[in-house]
Design goal:
The complex is a heterotetramer of chains A (341), B (324), C (324) and D (288). Chain A is mainly alpha-helical and 341 residues long. Chain A contains 14 helices and no strands. Chain D has one domain: MetI-like (MetI-like fold), CATH 1.10.3720. The N terminus of chain D is likely disordered. The chains are: A mainly alpha (341), B alpha/beta (324), C alpha/beta (324), D mainly alpha (288).
């Protein structure tokens, strides 16, 4: 097992390095002068020189990369040309908002998707199966931004069930003390259930938007891998040996279908990190997604670069976690065929 | 001078602690028009040997020569490549699903022999294996297992090879088809004097088609003899156990046999001395210390076992005539 | 009164008229090993899946009844399969695939004892190790703690047999239990099955396409072709005086000459919508009566076959009705 | 239990043209609906512009007019006819979706088969590069590429195509790894083929099957991504007639009740993506 982990660590480091390289050079292939881009079109020569000095634009590309890389390793993602603040700080300050939105959406997607997938697979052809398949196709062809707009239009403008799609809390409400950064959790931890409920109400529409899109791949993957496991010889043997259907479904069916399901959840996390940008923009949600959107609008390339690297790192670490989970779930990976043949 | 001669062939997969010696010093000869069967159970190295002999894999050491020429030195030379061909075990897997029968059979002729009469050669090859010209446009999925294997045989024969290696060619065919393919192979051999290296674990088929049989265990040939001699008078304890274990389709000749104990050990942790010692009813001290070599017992009949010379008659195997 | 009595078992493809299995009748005595023989696609596995209620969703039970020790376990017209614990279970062909890859081997045996036979955890644990030892697994405790991918094919099949032993069935169906295993391991598994039958006096349906295995293992044999029972009798009767042309075809195909015009089932294809005998279009003796569904004719006290040739040979149609 | 004999019995060979079409409909019900929707889009894309006016002509007087016989989809805040713009946009969105899928499929398959069949250093490099590209969740990579390359339609197409190429590389590579072990590849070696001939003449054709179904799904997702980027003002810019742009422009109008400006273009995107999903899902189902 250790050989497997060391190899995995090496590939992860290589991938992270690859991300920084890609991001750094992609942003640099911009037509036009990097200084003009940062200082803005109306900056005079002096301002341009100052900017060049500040961002080390005079050094060779490689030197710039080296300084940038050593910065990233120490967690410094550069300074925003708009706010002149540290990109890292600005991102970390906004991360909890995105996580709260994303985690609830992924949790809901699994809460709905996994059972539906299992039931659809065990009663193939039944109405649940047909409903699930329709759900999968609808979910994977749903345009996130359009869905968000519709939900806002119906549930806020027409029915008024939910608060205005602006920010995490109504203007009047005071955010809870910062423990985890997740308002609902912090509010509950500090004994303010009604504040938690208000925060939850603001969360509902954006989370619902994201969940509809995230639930599709989970349902599809769970259903598909369950169907394959339920067709296996060991399920047939368990049934022949008189094991009750419920035990077979869980202990033989789902237990062996979990590998592809874990992969699906990994992919769903990937969608979430990407999908956040649209949902946060639509709902004016103060997360890293919106921060990315604003940095594009203001042409703040340093900030955009920081965002992409953060998302990339998060995603790669997530994949490592998934690989570790693989090892725990599947003995074939955990214990190679070392026993006697 | 024999058509194929293999001298002291070794093949080890992987290295160091994880080394897996699949072939441990195999030597054999096949004459033109002769069929040598390589018999043994999974893990004995017969398939690895076959792949090396036909040039699909490189040996770790040892030599393979075809009509006196070292095959591996010039395996990319069209003239050498043409002379050794192979028929595989799974008919549905050994034909490219996207190719028509004609294109599959024509390929070796086109690439190794060339010339303009490719079309005629394809029709001729198909006729040899009992398939009419109407099969040319068909795809593998439209054919039955038996027909697919016939196409594979036609492909192997089209450029007149001198040696054909057959890796369990009838193992995945139904009984009725199996016998007819075997009969076809025999007829082709008589007509063209082609040599066969026939790999199999099905002793009934081996007994019918082979002139000589070599029994392999854990990467070594433990016994080799003319077919009838081997089936009538098996010497090596493993050969005896193998013959005794093979079921015979005759209810009157049931063998109440004490089956061989245990299973073939893994090649990665081989014992010193004879590799069969952990399961052999005749094992004694010498077997545990030194590796026996192939000793000639009778003309063309050799076995690798110390106990063979002083073999006690009873051997603990009832009805040891072992005739399948 | 026989242990297992299957009458008129019919199975068809959902939403289609054709019957994959038609009017199959089988009877099995306690302590008897009966071979169920047929080429691929003959429906031999389908019949056993029907008895266990494990038919794939695309196939449905169309008719027939089955009883074990007089108690109905299958009645197509009423509640379908009403199998109870200890009635019957099945061992499949692919041993390594028949074990849950993420569950320890010992646990898979133990859960039959606890979940199905209602034994306590402690009792079940000790009995599991005993069962593993009973089926000839060396180092039973260590094996109980390992996973299927760490065991050889032969070992996995022994574990599945241990599971069947834990279930303590009155009828055990073994579907090609040793196909794909080495011949020496197969002999060990045959030996084990014979011992278990003598010890528990259960009946075994041994499904195979290998006539050698039938001759070696089975007291009686039933021959299936395209979902129809062709012939049933003691192994010696069926091998030495085969009455049904298809049984003769199977036996003859063991060693025909290439010349004999024997087309395999795969090449000839099967028309499942035919009302009469489905072998007619390949049968040398076919005549106009063959378009009706052939009844069972009696060639001996235990020897039946479904072919109208029987009408001329001995008019026992009356006796057939008494048996049905 | 689908042994050849049983399969042969249950699928009767249809006779004649309509019987064959009928049997295709029965075997691929969803894909057929998908194809019907696709053909509607194709027709709109090809002939649509002949029947509608200029998508850019504004008439501030009847801005934000609700759907009527005169303006089927109503008008936007600049008074432009939403229906006209939607029809013109069809050509852009349909073509973009298909082109992205094709580029990603072809590039991915070629790289995948070479990596899968030859293995070695090239395979290792390809795997690391795909890991890196896949580390940017689909949308984010396209975002930064377009931000860097500049806002133009070709740039968006290239950016999104690059984001989807790794899917095909992984798919075809995995299949090539499996095909490489099969016996017909050994037979091809014995027949005198060189390694490159085997890779492209034997292994590639047999490794493409998973790529066809994936291409349909990717085309659907690509349409959504391009529209999403346009919604964020990245890549395709106003005033170009493109459904994502139209939804973005109509977004604030929705708040004030002019729902039609965003509803119709958004619905058209979803329906197009749906068509691709239906085709892809049914083909994939068939493979299982």
């Amino acid at each position: 097992m250790t050989r497997y982990l060391t190899r995995r660590a090496a590939t992860t480091a290589l991938t992270l390095f690859g991300i920084v390289v890609v991001v750094f050079f992609v942003v640099r292939i911009l037509p036009g002068d990097a200084a003009v881009l940062r200082a803005g079109p109306y900056a005079d020569a002096a301002r341009l020189a100052e900017v060049r000095e500040q961002y080390g634009l005079n050094d060779s590309l490689l030197e710039q990369f080296w300084t940038y890389l050593s910065g990233v390793i120490q967690g410094d993602l550069g300074t925003s040309t708009v706010s002149n603040g540290s990109v890292t700080a600005e991102l970390l300050q906004r991360l909890p908002a995105s996580l709260e939105l994303g985690l609830y959406a992924v949790f809901l997607a699994c809460l709905i998707g996994i059972p539906m997938g299992i039931v659809a697979a065990s009663r193939q052809g039944g109405w649940i199966d047909r409903f699930t398949r329709a759900g999968v196709i609808m979910g994977s062809s749903m345009a996130l931004f359009w869905l968000g707009l519709l939900l806002i239009y119906f549930f806020y403008s027409r029915l008024g069930w939910f608060p205005a799609p602006i920010d995490r809390l109504p203007v009047a409400a005071e955010p809870p003390p910062h423990l985890t950064g997740l308002f609902t959790v912090d509010a509950l931890l500090t004994g303010q259930p009604d504040l938690a409920w208000t925060a939850a109400r603001s969360l509902m529409l954006p989370v619902l938007t994201l969940t509809v899109v995230l639930v599709a791949p989970v349902m599809k993957m769970v259903r598909q891998s369950m169907i394959e496991t339920l067709r296996s010889d060991y399920v047939r043997t368990a049934r022949a040996m008189g094991i009750k259907e419920r035990d077979v479904l869980v202990r033989d069916g789902f237990r062996n279908a979990m590998l592809p399901v874990i992969t699906a959840i990994g992919i769903v996390f990937g969608y979430m990190l990407g999908g956040n940008i649209i949902v946060e923009t639509l709902f004016a949600w103060p997360g890293i997604g919106r921060y990315a959107y604003q940095s594009i609008q203001n042409n703040d390339l340093e900030a955009l670069q920081g965002f992409v690297i953060l998302v990339g790192v998060l995603y790669v670490l997530l994949n490592v976690l998934i690989d570790v989970l693989y090892g725990l779930v599947d003995p074939r990976i955990r214990i190679g065929a070392r026993a006697k043949s | 001078m024999s058509l194929l001669s293999v001298r002291n062939l070794h093949k080890t997969y992987g290295s160091g602690a994880r080394a897996l010696p699949a072939v441990r010093g195999v030597s054999l000869d096949v004459a033109a028009g002769e069929t040598l069967a390589l018999v043994g159970e999974s893990g004995c190295g017969k398939s690895s040997t076959a792949r090396i002999v036909v040039g699909l894999a490189q040996p770790t050491s040892g030599s393979v020569s075809l009509a006196g020429e070292d095959l591996h030195a010039r395996v990319h030379d069209r003239e050498v490549r043409r002379r050794a061909q192979m028929v595989f075990q799974h008919p549905d897997q050994s034909l490219n699903p996207h190719f028509t029968v004609a294109r599959t059979v024509a390929e070796p002729a086109r690439l190794l022999v060339g010339g303009r009469d490719i079309e005629d050669r394809v029709v001729e090859a198909l006729r040899t294996v009992g398939l009419g010209p109407e099969y040319r446009a068909r795809r593998p999925r439209e054919l039955s297992g038996g027909q697919q294997q016939r196409v594979a045989i036609a492909r192997a024969l089209i450029c007149d090879p001198e040696l054909v290696v057959l890796d369990e060619p009838t193992a995945s065919l139904d009984q009725s088809v199996r016998s007819r393919v075997v009969a076809l192979l025999e007829r082709v051999q008589q007509e063209r004097q082609v040599g066969y290296l026939f790999i199999s674990h099905d002793l009934t088929t081996v007994r019918r088609i082979a002139h000589r049989v070599a029994v392999m265990y854990l990467g070594r040939i433990v016994e080799v003899a003319p077919t009838e001699e081997l089936f009538e008078n098996p010497q090596h304890p493993y050969t005896r156990a193998l013959l005794a274990a093979a079921p015979v389709p005759d209810p009157r000749r049931r063998k109440r046999v004490v089956p061989l104990r245990g299973e073939t050990p893994s090649a990665s942790d081989l014992p010193t001395g004879c590799s069969f010692q952990s399961r052999c009813p005749l094992v004694h001290d010498r077997c545990r210390t030194t590796q026996p070599q192939l000793e000639p017992l009778a003309p063309d009949h050799a076995a690798e076992c110390f106990a063979v010379a002083s073999r006690p008659e009873h051997l603990g195997v009832v009805g040891s005539d072992g005739r399948p | 009164m026989s242990l297992l009595d299957v009458r008129g078992l019919s199975v068809g493809i959902a939403g289609k008229e054709e019957l994959l299995l038609r009017d199959v009748t089988l009877s099995l005595q306690p302590g008897e090993i009966q071979g169920v023989v047929g080429e691929s696609g003959s429906g031999k596995t389908m019949a056993s899946l029907a008895l266990l209620g494990l038919l794939p969703p695309s196939v449905e039970l169309r008719g027939g009844t089955a009883a074990i020790g007089g108690r109905t376990v299958l009645d197509a017209s009423r509640r379908g399969v009403t199998r109870q614990v200890g009635d019957l279970t099945m061992v499949f062909q692919n041993p390594r695939g028949a074990l849950n890859p993420t569950m320890k081997v010992g646990h898979q045996v133990r859960r039959v004892l606890t979940k199905v036979r209602g034994k306590s955890k402690g009792e079940a644990t000790t009995e599991t190790v005993a069962l593993l030892r009973r089926v000839g697994i060396p180092g039973a405790e260590r094996v109980a703690g390992s996973y299927p991918h760490q065991l050889s094919g032969g070992m996995c099949q022994r574990v599945v047999i241990a599971m069947a032993l834990a279930y303590r069935p009155r009828v055990l169906i073994a579907d090609e239990p040793t196909t794909g295993l080495d011949v020496t391991v197969q002999a060990q598994i045959f030996d084990l099955l014979r011992e278990l039958v003598e010890e528990t006096n259960c009946g075994v349906l041994f499904i195979t396409h290998d006539l050698g295995a039938v001759a070696e293992m089975c007291d009686r044999v039933s021959v299936l072709y395209a979902g129809q029972l062709m012939e049933t009798g003691t192994t010696i009767e069926t091998f030495e005086q085969p009455r049904h042309p298809y049984t003769r075809f199977l036996l003859e195909s063991l060693s025909p000459q290439e010349s004999s015009r024997l087309t395999s089932t795969e090449e000839a294809g099967v028309d499942f919508s035919l009302p009469g005998c489905r072998f007619a279009h390949r049968c040398a003796h076919a005549f106009e009566r063959c378009s009706d569904f052939p009844q069972l004719f009696q060639a001996g006290p235990q020897h039946l076959y479904s072919c109208f040739l029987g009408e001329e040979e001995d008019d026992v149609a009356a006796q057939r009705s008494q048996l049905a | 239990m689908s042994s050849p004999v049983v399969a042969a019995a249950s699928v009767s060979r249809p006779r004649g043209r309509n019987a064959q079409v009928l049997s295709l409909l029965r075997r691929y019900p969803m894909a057929s609906i998908g194809v019907v929707i696709m053909s509607v889009y194709a027709l709109t894309a090809i002939f649509g512009p002949l029947f509608v006016g200029d998508p850019l002509s504004t008439s501030p007087s009847d801005a934000l007019a609700p759907p009527s016989s005169e303006h089927y989809f109503g008008t936007d805040r600049f008074g432009r006819d939403v229906f006209t713009r939607a029809v013109i946009a069809a050509r852009l969105d349909v073509v973009v979706g298909i082109v992205i899928a094709l580029i990603a499929a072809i590039a991915g398959s070629l790289i995948g088969v070479v990596a899968g069949y030859f293995g070695g250093a090239f395979d290792e490099v390809v795997m690391r590069v795909t890991d890196v590209v896949l580390a940017f969740p689909g949308f984010v990579l396209a975002l930064i590429l377009v931000a860097a390359l500049g806002d133009s339609i070709p740039n968006v197409v290239i950016a999104v195509a690059i984001a989807y190429t790794p899917y095909f590389i992984r798919l075809v590579r995995a299949r090539a790894l499996a095909e490489r072990e099969r016996e017909y590849v050994d037979a091809a070696t014995l027949a005198g083929n060189g390694r490159w001939q085997i890779a492209f003449r034997h292994v590639l054709p047999n490794s493409l099957t998973p790529a066809y179904t994936q291409a349909a799904l990717v085309a659907g997702w690509a349409v959504l991504d391009v529209a999403g980027l346009a919604f964020l003002g990245i890549g395709i810019q106003p005033p170009t007639a493109e459904w994502g742009v139209m939804v973005a422009e109509g977004a604030n109008d929705v708040m004030t009740g002019a729902w039609w400006t965003a509803l119709f273009p958004g619905a058209l995107i979803v329906a197009l993506a749906l068509a691709f999903q239906l085709i892809g899902d049914d083909l994939q189902g068939e493979k299982r």
